[in-house]
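Sequence design from tokenized structure. All designs in this work follow the same two-part layout: the structure record, then the generated sequence. An example of the structure record is given first.
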């Protein structure tokens, strides 16, 4: 998935959450039994698993980048390393925002718009996390093998 497409998808989905929360809050508020049962500790459990697995994978990727750059003898993965760092910190921040949403949700119990907006943003955060997973996975598979200079000389 193209980065521009992902950003557009996130922007459109936030706009959709706001519009649906304002125009038809019953679709997203606690009348929706799934969202009522999902935007609580269940959301945090799913995001926690995604966070733990992805951070472990990101650390391994980071270490592999170090190995590849040492073999090559110069830094050539700065852009990939920065994207990985941004992705990892984005996952952490989105988890913290989800914790805040779960804590604030009971305070909005009397406001259908508030509950609908919180539930919608929780689904948005899940989408955001899935897009980050997709981005990291695509990045991993885009890295090709790195050959030493001696192997290159033999092929030439």
């Amino acid at each position: 998935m193209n980065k521009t497409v992902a950003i557009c998808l996130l922007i459109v989905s936030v706009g959709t959450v706001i519009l649906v929360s304002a125009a038809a809050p019953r679709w997203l508020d606690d009348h929706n039994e799934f969202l009522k049962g999902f935007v609580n500790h269940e959301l945090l459990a799913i995001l926690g698993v995604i966070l733990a697995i992805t951070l472990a994978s990101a650390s391994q990727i980071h270490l592999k980048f170090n190995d590849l750059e040492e073999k090559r003898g110069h830094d050539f993965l700065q852009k990939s390393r920065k994207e990985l760092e941004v992705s990892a910190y984005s996952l952490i921040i989105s988890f913290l925002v989800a914790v805040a949403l779960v804590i604030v949700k009971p305070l909005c119990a009397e406001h259908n718009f508030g509950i609908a907006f919180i539930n919608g943003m929780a689904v948005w955060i899940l989408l955001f996390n899935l897009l980050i997973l997709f981005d990291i996975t695509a990045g991993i598979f885009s890295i090709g093998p790195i050959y030493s200079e001696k192997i290159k000389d033999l092929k030439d």
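The mean pLDDT is 87. We note this feature because it recurs in several other targets discussed in the main text.
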